[in-house]
Amino acid sequence: MQQTTSIVLKSLSILLGLFFLFTGFMKISPYISKELHRDLRKHYVKYAKAFPMASLFDIRVPSKWYRRIIGAIEVICGGLMAGFPSHTVKNAANGTLLCLMFLALYSQYMANDPFERLGPTLVFIFMLVGRLVIFFQIHRKEKQKEEAAAAQANGIKQD
Fold this sequence. Notes:
Elements: H1 2-28, H2 34-49, H3 52-57, H4 63-83, H5 87-110, H6 115-153
Helix pairs in contact: 1-4, 1-6, 2-4, 4-5, 5-6
């Protein structure tokens, strides 16, 4: 069972990382698809207006830089999730991407986007949360095994 969940965790990390690498790159550059990049640019004009800090501090966020910064963060975190071996770094990237997804959900809701645009964001929120749940379950099981092994080595009887 341990090996299966570990494979699931690795697979989910790699697939989510590659997805965010792709979507982040699409926000930064029109190299893959000019039409999709143009569509993203159009939507980020609305999202920049709905940025929570903009209304709170009465500042204007340029949509071009907002889109590029979000894209760069997605590329960095996606790369870390897909290829970095440290679970601490992967979990930090997962948490950062989760925050970005909640920001995207808020922006899409405030911009009155249809559910077709909200749906994928919700799916990836659930996938990122699921990845964290799987990690913490594996971590808890490993910790319990270590405690049981240490207690047995000390001669304490386990029930």
